[in-house]
Every structure is written in C-alpha cells, then in structure tokens.
Amino acid sequence: MNGYKYKPIRFYIICFAVTWLFWISAAILSSFGDENGISMILMLFGLFTPAVTAIVTVTTSKSKALKNDLKRKLVGFYRINPLNILIAVLSFALIVVCSILLSLLFGQSADQFAFTEDFSFSIGGTSALLTILLASVIEELGWRGYGEDSVASYFTWFTESIIFGCIWALWHLPLFWIEGTYHYGLRELGIVYMLNFLISVVPMGFLTTWVYVRNNRSMLACIIFHLFVNTMQEKIAMTPQTKCIETIVVTIAAVIVVMLNKEMFFERKHIGNILCEKKGNEELI
User: Fold this and answer.
1) Is 226 a catalytic residue?
2) CA 113 to CA 46: how far, in whole Å?
3) Range scoring the smallest mean pLDDT among 41-55, 110-124, 240-254
4) Which sequence spans correspond to the domains of the chain?
5) Per annotation, catalytic residue among 35, 117, 139, 140
6) 183 assigned to active site
C-alpha cells in the first residue's frame, strides 16, 4: 500500500453537487433569456469544478506520493508513448470514416466527409472552439488528476472504465437544458439523440482509459486524444443520425481494444498501489 486511501465517493459527490448547482442555475437563467450571458459564466464554473476539486483534494492531502503523482502527470512529458497516441488518434479517425460509410447505406449524404464551416454551437455568440479547448484541458485535469485513479485504486481498469464512463455521462446531464450548448441542440432534436450521447460516453471511457494507462497515466496524452475527438465531432459534417451509428462503431472499437489489451484491463496489481512507481511497469505500458 502507498499510505494514501483514495476517496472516490466524496470526490464525485462534490463534483456533481457543485457542477450541477452551477449548471442548473445556468439552465434556469437561459430559459428566461439571460441577455447578460451569466448562464455562460455559470456553465464555465461548472466545467472547472472537477479540476478545482481534484487540485484541492490533492494539495490539501497529507500524501507526498499523491502530490508528486499529480506533478508527474502534469509535467512528465516523458511518460507519453507517441506511437500509442498516434494509433489512438488514427483509430478514432477510422471510426468516423466507417460511421459515415455505414450511414450511406441508410440514405445519408457523402457530403459528411466535408469539414463544417464553423462549430455547430456557440455560447453567448462566442465560437465553441474555446469551450472545446477548455473541455479537453480542464476536464482531463479533474478526471485524470484524481477522479479516474480514485476508482481504479479499488477496481480493475475494465470495471473502472464502466463505472467512470457512467459517471462521466451523467455528469453532462444538466447541459441538455442550457441554451447554446451542443447538448441543448441534441435535446431539441429529440430524446433519441440525447440518449445516444449519454450511451456513447461509456465506450469512449474505455478508449480514454486505454490511452491513459498505455501512456503511463499521462494527463497530456488524454488531453491530446480528448481534443482530437472533440474537434472531429465538431468539424466533420456528420449528421445526428450518423452519430448514432458512430456510437455502435465506437462500442465495437472499445471491445476490440479490450480484447487486445486484456492484461492491462484485467490486471489487479495496481489496486491499492496505484501511486507506487514500478520500473517494471514500463514494459506493460
């Protein structure tokens, strides 16, 4: 044991309570017009909540190992496996291509292979590019800074991926009622598209865990992957119908990744020892 006991329940209760407080308030304000853009500020506060919670949890702990681990994940560029990141990025690009090709069988247009002129949503008249960048960096700081490890310290990476994927999906829920968000647009299209988003997050959790662990638990690797995924989802002109097909393709990809990385997903040696530096782990990851 490393002397520090992770507290995932406390961490996620705080994240959900504070994030949802900001986002539900933002949803109420946006429903009344919110000409001053306060709902956007509240939405950003909610986005920052997991990161702030993770940093406060780590820095106020009495564990030197936990603090050093966060520092390594933030600045330890040596942890990255460039080949793995390249494979992950190309794999998601292939997922998008396959999804569009399959959608052609159901009457969707080949024009989906084009890039969109702009992002599909804006907040307060501002391009969503900043939001996507923030989501990629800030979310990863929270989830990879403490959230994912706090669950993995008690379970295999396979079980952790399921638990975290469900938590990550539910965390987004209030965004469906904040006008101007991508999620709000899905709600206007119908409940099927809302459910598709929530379901798609779970298999994506497996892919992100794969990138995280195979890169020696590198936060930067996850930021790169997260940013690429968000950008592809926004800049490739996929229809909402095709994104439903994409969820199936992502699920198949997640199954393949798990099958090819059984040792990683089902090993139990890290449980209770996730903060321990294992030189021999390099060959596994």
Assistant:
1) no
2) 33
3) 110-124
4) 8-283
5) 139
6) no
